Amino acid sequence: xFGSELLFAREAAGLSQHDLGARVHCTPGQISRIEGATxxxxxxxxxxxxxxxxxxxxxxxxxxxxxWDGAVGHPDWFRRYAGLEAEATIIRQFQxxxxxxxxxxxxxxxxxxxxxxxxxxxxxxxxxxxxxxxRQRILTAGDPPRLLIVLDEGVLLRNYGGEVVMRAQLxxxxxxxxxxxIVLRVAPLSLGAVAAFDHSFTLLTLPDEPxxxxxxxxxxxxxxxxxxRFRDWAxxxxxxxxxxxxxxxxxxxxxxxxxGLRTMNSVPNLDAASWRKSTYSTGDGGNCIEVADGFEGxxxxxxxxxxxxxxxxxxAAAWRSFLAGVxxxxxxxx
Length: 334
Fold this sequence. Notes:
alpha+beta, 13 helices, 45% helix
């Protein structure tokens, strides 16, 4: 954009590359490369061109908005959205399948790109990951947008990349939620079909142009700038937000998902476990269950009449909740 605007302004002023170069202390070859977008200009160059071409502060403004050093490798169809996202003052998202790109860890993003492009080279994958991380810089800029994300609970339960990757990703969500400009909410599975949202979307509130909707697709997304549709989708989003868990309950649900990952994928070695029965066991032929203590955060359980059979491992908090329910009579057959 900078190069094309410079070319337009120079030709409108009736100057050759040699003429402009003489006024801004550059060679014609340097002007040519800058106009062809193969050479990075300096801010001083942009300001000199503005004065030489009578363009006010146009080129300096464009220069300040270009991420000259960023590792941007977005596909062509996504670049429009990425530019709008970088300008937005408020970003509202609903995600039904994945952690949003703005909050993905490098390993989580790498897992997704490898699955999407299985034949891509390692360099290509790293280019895609770098481009995704580059987008995230808007969240820590001097005047970051407000980010409000509603995650379908299924996002927390889909194990992309294995336990280590998922636990790090969920921990990253909790860490990012501490920022004053970021709010995370979880839409629990119990909601069912809420407002018929069966796909992910983003609502961008922009400072100087109409607000837009970005709708995810299988192969590519779509930017919609219809004000009426934006109003309807924003209303539906507000309804979804009202039906979602509170912020505190949402963060607790994320922590619970982390605990569940450890339980499912990190079953401890029980060979040397010390098993015990309930003190209320009456010696009825071994028809009891046994538990093993000493496993932080976990409670192993087995059938006393089949000690060499399968063992189940529950989160300790879930086991305590079960025992409380038994004592309260919630399970009359127990």
